[in-house]
What does this fold into?
Amino acid sequence: MADGIPFDRELDFEYGRIERVSPSIRRVIAPNGGPFTFHGTGTYVIGRGKLAVVDPGPLLSSHIQALKHALRGETITHILITHTHRDHSPAAAPLKEEWAAPTYGFGPHGGGRIEAGAVVEAGGDESFVPDFATGDGDAIEGDGWTVEAVHTPGHTSNHLCFHLKEENALFSGDHVMGWSTTIVSPPDGDMADYVASLDKLIARGGAGDDAIYWPTHGAPIREPGAFVPALRAHRMGREEQVLACLRDGMTGIADMVPRMYAGDVPPAMYPAAARSVLSHLVWLVEKEKVRADGELGTDAVFRLA
It folds into this structure.
């Protein structure tokens, strides 16, 4: 199903070693590899001397010490958070303590969805609250660099990408990754928002912005103008698969997932795939193409409207 997406799963790196990946960007990868993080969290450093850090990563002492060692003699002045999953934001606290650097992010985990009564999925850094709430289009300026925040909800409601003006580059967090598609897990994850955010990035590409993406996991995406539309087409293909399952009499997600993901992911990943299928079904219910019997969740019974 994902054959049309030009994934790049090659990455030459060494854990804990800072590497220059562009004229003004360096990266240190944390040793927290896994099925959702690929090799691990890539923490990016912008600038020289007075720095911004993008996604400081998980609360792993080895990664935090690697960052402190790599940046000795320099000063972190800004800490930018794409979103508040535990592999992205928790290390902001010790870096802030070391350098007294303020944090920038859209908001706490779950944003307005928690205030509305939603129970947000596990895996969130619920302790993080940004020093500066950062919205779409906000500019953050440092010593020799300027970043624009791009709100891209979908993977999480508080997801931001960051556009580095000086290199026409986008730190894409988990919204767009070069090694895998992104899990969209309700209620904080929202497929309608996710596709709209893809459309937003496609429009930016048409305007000449974002020549290269630097995801938090995996290798850079060097041709986003082809990659992001392929991701969008993949999502719409998944929607068509859901509708085909319903037309064939399948009413439960547990039956749909093995059919939809056979050959794409191992069975151990089916629970995660089920969350994305649920997100497609929630969107189809919103579009009045599908109705659900019972509470809208992975155990609901779904039928064509």
